[in-house]
Amino acid sequence: MRWVKRHILPAYAILAFCYLLLPIAVVILFSFNDPSGRFNYVWEGFTFDNWVNWDAPPGIQSAVGKSLEIGLLSTIVATALGTLLALAIVRHQFRGRGATNMLIFLPMSTPEIVLGASLLTLFLNRQIVTGFGTIFIAHVMFIVSYVVVTVKARLIDFDRHLEEAAMDLGANEWVTFRKVTLPLLAPAILSAALLGFALSIDDFVITYFVSGPTQTFPLFVWGAARVSVPPQVNVVASAIFLVAVFVMIGNVLWGLRARRARESMPAAVPLPETLPTTEPA
Predict the structure, then answer these.
(1) Closest CA to 84 of 5, 178, 151, 4
(2) What is the pLDDT, as a whole number, of residue 208?
(3) Which of 189, 225, 227, 190 lies closest to 204 in space, CA to CA?
């Protein structure tokens, strides 16, 4: 019974993890399928042709390019804005701070179909033509919230004494931010950027409302699913997932290396309370 109690929780965690990864494993497996028909639903044979000719279906290359372009641009802008917002909320007292902190969570808690319809109404009332620009605005809007939450969690446990020590040694505010604050926040910022990019490239509901004639990869999959499901869809999805996993592993290793470097630094030697004095000759 002691052996069972000691191993039941790890076994449950492994089973839950496998359950979560099972659909992703099916997507990767069927990227190597060789279907005889238009739908990639039944396993019929193994082939590498899908990966070699990933851009064979008409329109998939343009859709993937639009998704990557919108995802990169919106992630960069949202990460910069979200990091500054997190710094302002955590470190500064200003009128409306509580309301700002509450409004940050509204895009996360509001259903996407409501956000999409509301944004479409806003753009139409302002006579803004929907397309690439409106998708970019919408993605920045809902990514910012996730960036603020991620960076703010790191700032709460941030050791302000490191910044104070840098300023005591003569560094100004900008140098302290660039040399001390930003490197220590970099793992959290990168994690927030990865999360934002995944949300942007995966979004369908909001993008569907504000896309206009622009077609992203989720919209391409939705449109193609009515007539066919080519295995190249699985190839693109698998490639995006594998790249995200490798970047995430690199981010974790980077964070662990930075933590070990901080822990290996020698502790500061405390100064004596009174300085020794020399007797005059």
Answers:
(1) 151
(2) 92
(3) 225
Nearest-angstrom CA–CA distance, 270 and 159: 18
Long-range contacts of 105-110 (CB under 8 A, 24+ apart): 105/145, 105/149, 106/145, 107/141, 107/142, 107/144, 107/145, 108/142, 108/145, 108/146, 108/149
The CATH number for 181's domain is: 1.10.3720.10
Q: Is residue 15 part of a domain?
A: no
In a domain, 272, yes or no: no
pLDDT the model gives residue 267:
53
Domain membership flag for residue 46: no
Buried b (16+ CB within 10 A) or exposed e, 124-158: eeeeeebebebbbbbbbebbbbbbbbbbbebbeeb
Cα separation of 157 and 150, whole Å?
A: 12
On whether residue 113 sits in a domain, the answer given is yes
What pLDDT was estimated at residue 104? 85
pLDDT at residue 228 in the model: 81
Q: For the chain, list residues with pLDDT below 70.
A: 258, 261-281
- List the structure tokens of 60: 């998939």
Cβ atoms 231, 30 nearer than 8 A? yes
Q: Dihedral, CA atoms, 233, 235, 241, 247, nearest 10 degrees? A: -130
Q: In a 3-state reduction of DSSP, which class is residue 17?
A: helix
- Separation CA 62–CA 217 (nearest Å): 8
Q: How far apart are CA 111 and CA 142, in angstroms?
A: 11
| Whether 184 contacts 78, CB under 8 Å | no
State how many domains the chain has. Answer: 1
pLDDT by residue (tens digit) across 34-83? 888 788 888 888 888 889 888 888 888 899 999 999 999 999 999 999 99
pLDDT of residue 185: 86
Parent domain of 71: 61-261
Structural contact between residues 150 and 188, judged by C-beta atoms closer than 8 angstroms: yes
